[in-house]
Amino acid sequence: MKIDCRVCGGVVETAVDLGRQPMANGFLRPDQRDTEHFFDLAIGMCERCTTVQLMEEVPQEMRYHSAYRYQASGSVGHRRHFAAIARHFLDQELLGPDPLIVEIGCNDGVMLETIARAGVRHLGVEPSGNVAAVARSKGVRVREDFFDEATGRDIRRTDGPADVVFGANTICHIAHVHSLFAGIDELLSDRGVFVFEEPYLGTIIGRTAFDQIYDEHVFYFTVRAMHAIARQFGFEVVDAEHIAMHGGSIRYTLARPGRRPVAARVGELLAQERAAGLAERATLQRFDATISGLRVELVELLRSLRSAGRRVVGYGAPGKSTTVTNFCGIGPDLIPYIVDSTPEKQGHLLPGTHIPVLAPEAFSEDPPDHAVLFSWNHAAEITAKESAFAAAGGRWITYVPRVAVTSAGATAALAG
Ligand code: DWN
Ligand code: SAH
Ligand code: ZN
């Protein structure tokens, strides 16, 4: 299959195909089993700008709404991470007489609550009403909307120029990339910075983290692709920092050309990407073959444990778990339930495979023999929380970077 690149109009051809899949966060009530939206989950690389992107898109209004299941404050690690970036902006960027920071995809206010407490002017732009309400309850000012060119222009009119526009795991969700950057151009001050952190194609491939591929993640950025995107829309990549979030992300800093010095690590990451062949379609095709082998291994392991009478459950129902279970054909016959700490996911069914999601108490009250760690990027926090499980002989099953039955210690190291 071929499509036109959303960034530059070049040709994008399918390179990794994960088959018919539901929306990753489309958790169902038991009576909603027959209402699921499926689409062809596949990615390809643009032959011109090398941006990797979904071949088929799920409309944003179907993905983000008043029952959005993901709450960004659902882990200690993420709360700490976003409090730290907020303090960085307060100390380094929001120093003018009347500074303004705008966050695209502020979710439940996990970052902006620190800014609000500091009494600094801010605005969250968040289309999912339920999480926007949580942000407001924390004192965060929120505009319930999808950010695009019109939104950027309107915020400039009502609030003035922004010194910082921030996004985390959101910019890669936005398919209307031309309108997005036109909105940034409208909103950002002359010396302002557009800072955003997104899962990194380099670590998705390097760690075989194929479960990061799903409907919400429209783009899978590299520094090289972002360099081309920035230039196309009148900006410059002035910094690119490899961070551990979500198993490996890049925090990009864009500015207007010549306004900020370019950090040396931008060139270092570009060189690493060249060495890793990240701009070559063949790299994606090898990745496609690797995950097909991983699928066979994971299903064979689960089947052999079932045959041996061992009880296996899932731990964590991140968006990623929808991709793994549907791609591998893992249903309640192999994993009878998954526990997750998000109240809005409990009592619901995992999209596609309809594995029931229960509260974590089900795990601690009746520990299984094995647990597949779907929230592997939270491994340290989870294995510490469930240390009694491993102490009693329970074993974690992981599949990133490869299928393995591990002790708690080795599992904890997975988070990166
Ligand atoms: O890009 C996105 C990122 C920001 O978050 C969105 N597409 C949606 C979402 O992706 P995700 O669901 O893969 O994010 P997480 O943070 O890996 O999800 C972790 C899941 O694990 C949550 O549902 C909460 C759960 N969890 C748990 O049950 N016990 C997490 C921890 C730390 C725990 O102790
Ligand atoms: N920033 C948080 C949440 C990421 S989940 C974190 O990193 O954990 C992605 C968020 O982006 C969701 O809350 C979703 O509603 C929001 N979003 C999606 N498209 C958007 C758009 N065009 N403008 C603003 N927010 C958007
Ligand atoms: Zn392109």
From TrEMBL:
Keyword Transit peptide: no
GO molecular function annotations of the record: methyltransferase activity
Domain of life, source organism: Bacteria
Residue ranges occupied by any Methyltransferase putative zinc binding domain in the UniProt entry: 5-61
GO biological process: methylation
Pfam families per UniProt: Methyltransf_13, Methyltransf_14, Methyltransf_23
Domain C-methyltransferase: 245-401
Keywords of the record: Methyltransferase, Transferase
PANTHER family noted in UniProt: BLL5978 PROTEIN, TRANS-ACONITATE 2-METHYLTRANSFERASE-RELATED
Identification of the protein by name: Methyltransferase domain-containing protein
Organism: Geodermatophilus maliterrae
